[in-house]
Amino acid sequence: MKRSLQSRRSRATALLASAAVLAGLAAAPTATAAATAAAPAALGVTAPAAATVVPTAGAASASIAPTAAPVVPGRGNTAANLFQWTWNAVAAECTRTLGPNGYAYVQVSPPQEHVPGGAWWTSYQPVSYRLESKLGTRAEFAAMVDTCGDAGVKIIADTVINHMAGADSSGTGSGGSSYGVDSFPGLYGRNDFNDCRTDITNYGDRWQVQNCRLVSLQDLRTGSDYVRTKIADYMNDLIGLGVAGFRIDAAKHIPASDLEAIKARLSDPSVFWVHEVIGSAGEPIQPSEYLGSGDSHEFQYARNLAGYFDGNIAGIRGISNGLLGSDRAGVFVDNHDTERDTHGTMSYKWGAKYVLGNVFLLGYDYGWPTVYSGYKFTDRDAGAPMSGGRVQDASCANGAVWTCTHDWTEIAGMVGFRNTVGSAPVTRWWDNGANAIAFGRGDRGYVVVNNQASGLNQTFQTSLPAGTYCDVVASRTCAETITVDDSGRFSAQIPQYGALAIHVGARAGDVPTDPTDPTDPAEATTVFYSTSQGWSAHRMHYRVGSGAWTTAPGEVLAPACAGWVSRTVPTDGAVITAAFTNGSGTWDNNGSADYRLSGAVAAVKDGRVTAANPCAQAPSDTTTVYYATDRGWSTYRVHYRVGSGAWTALPGEALAPACAGWVSRTVASAGQPVTAAFTSGSGQWDNNGSADYRLTGAHVAVRGGQVTPGSPCA
Ligand code: ARE
């Protein structure tokens, strides 16, 4: 197939609306607390078997010598960091996207018991090392390790071992343990904390940084044998559950020799560690100091990356000058701290440049890359949406809340690129002396990054074999192809702030062209737009995934209900990028950032995107559950929970006769799904083959394993 320049031009137009973001000027997308349904929990009668990996024997003789995140054959070692995702949601995502996209690792948020509260950072204030947190239970964590393992994805746990809770609070943790100053009953007391009781104020003072309190967090005496043993026990527990690697939070605040001593106590002392040591100029403690117990994150790489993309990228080949060696550096475009606090990195709020930064991260040959994927926010402290003390399960169908960076077409394509090119060296470098670059990875792949406000029309010399290649940045379905001629050359037009990547693992014919992913949550998105601006007509100018834009001013939105117009767009699960207009010159393009719309429903009002259908009738306050009596039990009970609330006491509550062949019970569901199993009350259960039933709506009937909306007695 010949490359379509027309479609390339459309992509150029596509990114035009995002141009203002590039200077970081875009209005911050607003996180909304759109309700995601709580995932069904297993009945909770028996805990799943936990152990999946037997700790290595002979620990004492094993080496704590550092290991880069081990390459998984055929997969590479790229990680995704699913920040504040629940274990159930991570498990589902491993199966749905992380495994299929080729990720080898997923980094999860700290799993230990923590202080209560709605801020994200409660995860960083341990109360005990029990795996009971707002992100899930121990059983759910173990199940996630197994499910992800089946999908080919290993777990890296973020471990908080420098400190416990802040000295400014006391109470009961997420797992029910009590805590206070110097008081973590059964685990730590006064002697287990360093003597310095004041906060770190001077990062130039090594002693202070490693002995005093980081933002008032009670600083563990990691020089003590006892504390080292407790921390090692915790990490060994995680290794026993099958965890493959660790991020060591706040490593700078722990002497490197203490960390080496802790690592030596692990059942697998060569397990992968990456230290969070924020390298900052002029400080005595630097990332290189920690290479005795693992790799370190190279924050300067992320700052450099932002600097190049904010200016000119022609010199980006020098990005790693003076930094850690490539085989010891954990790299990312941003992480959960740098997207919030002033660390000089990019974030999802940078729009198109952020995508290009990730393309470079995955395309170039420096460091071990982690793709960061969190949730949208305006308030620095705001946690992900919670209900009943737990974070709601993330879903990429809920694009109003979760960024799902890890599954953006461009990024998923580049994970595949990286897996194919492996360690092939950077070759055939090209740049235009300004803001466009291109390079090969031996004879395996070739990438072009255009960080200019104008399109790039260029012929490139590659070392690739002749053939027709899929542009894996443009689509997942080989919708756009590149023909490399017998001398290894190809010509292409790359849109402004666009990229192109081809590799020998994705040639035309290799890649299925049917975009339908049966596991995708939404194959169409109904977009609602509020009429509150008083426009006389409403249109949406959009593209799906990296496809072509509609012809401006876009397509008409039809009246949906009072105050709203709408249009349903087939997406095959891809994200819609859109701007709205009255068709006569007035635009709402989200402060130049455009809107990213996904999921079954995306409703846009006053610059905010929510996932609830504004035209749906108000959810019922109650759900009447009907259960067929054809099982012939003498009594019928329903054991259930609402949303992610508590389960009823076993064996659940009685169902009363409703009409011939049916019993029923009305549950106060407040519009949330009811997760349920049915029982005779004397040992017989129908728990939908262990999956439980998920029941929604005002009336819902269950018979023979089938759930039907409405009342069978009506
Ligand atoms: C919260 C409140 C505080 C309160 C405390 C105790 O915000 O006001 O005193 O609770 O109640 C995260 C949040 C914090 C939060 C903390 C505990 O960011 O806001 O405190 O959790 O809930 C330094 C460290 C580095 C650290 C950064 C944030 O060196 O290790 O600060 N990063 C990790 C995590 C964070 C986490 C913690 C550590 C604590 O990634 O998410 O904090 O577990 C220069 C220096 C850096 C320094 C940086 C910022 O660049 O070179 O070393 O980083 O400044 O100060």
The first-to-last residue Cα distance is: 58 Å
Q: Give the bound compounds.
A: acarbose derived pentasaccharide
Rounded Rg:
27 Å
How many helical stretches? 9
What is the makeup of the main sheet?
Answer: 8 strands, parallel, barrel
**Mean pLDDT, as a whole number?**
87
CATH class of the largest domain: Alpha Beta
Secondary-structure content class = alpha+beta
Shape: globular
As a percent range, the share of strand residues is: 25-35%
Number of DSSP-assigned strands: 44
**Quick one: CATH superfamily of the largest domain?**
Glycosidases
Our count of domains comes out at 4
Question: What is the strand and helix layout of this fold?
Answer:
Elements: H1 5-16, E1 79-82, H2 87-101, E2 105-108, H3 138-150, E3 154-159, E4 163-166, E5 171-172, E6 178-179, E7 183-184, E8 188-189, H4 206-211, E9 217-219, H5 225-240, E10 245-248, H6 256-264, E11 272-275, E12 295-297, H7 299-310, E13 329-332, H8 352-363, E14 368-373, E15 386-387, E16 390-391, H9 409-421, E17 426-431, E18 436-441, E19 445-450, E20 456-461, E21 467-470, E22 481-484, E23 489-494, E24 498-503, E25 524-530, E26 539-544, E27 555-556, E28 558-561, E29 564-570, E30 576-581, E31 587-588, E32 595-597, E33 601-605, E34 608-610, E35 622-628, E36 637-642, E37 653-654, E38 656-659, E39 662-668, E40 674-679, E41 685-686, E42 693-695, E43 699-703, E44 706-709
Parallel strand pairs: 1-2, 1-14, 2-3, 3-10, 10-11, 11-12, 12-13, 13-14, 25-33, 35-43
Antiparallel strand pairs: 4-9, 5-6, 7-8, 15-16, 17-18, 18-19, 19-24, 20-23, 21-22, 25-29, 26-27, 26-30, 28-29, 30-31, 30-32, 33-34, 35-39, 36-37, 36-40, 38-39, 40-41, 40-42, 43-44
Helix pairs in contact: 2-3, 5-6, 8-9
The structure holds acarbose derived pentasaccharide (ARE).
Acarbose derived pentasaccharide (ARE) binds next to loops.
